[in-house]
Amino acid sequence: MEGIIAIWQRDLIKFLRDRARLFGSFTMPILFLLIFGGGLSGTMESMMVENIGVDSNEFNYIEFVFPGIVAMTLLMTAVFSAMSVIEDKNYGYMKEILVSPISRVSIAIGKMAGAATVSTIQGVLLFALIPLLGLSYDLFSLIQVIPFMFLFGAALSGVGLLFASVISSTQGFQLIVNILVLPMIFLSGALFPINNMPGWLDVIVKLNPVTYGVDVMKKIMIDVEKLSASIQETMGLNITVFGRQVTVFEEILFIVGFTIVIIALATFSFKRANA
Question: What's the whole-model pTM score?
Answer without folding.
Answer: 0.84
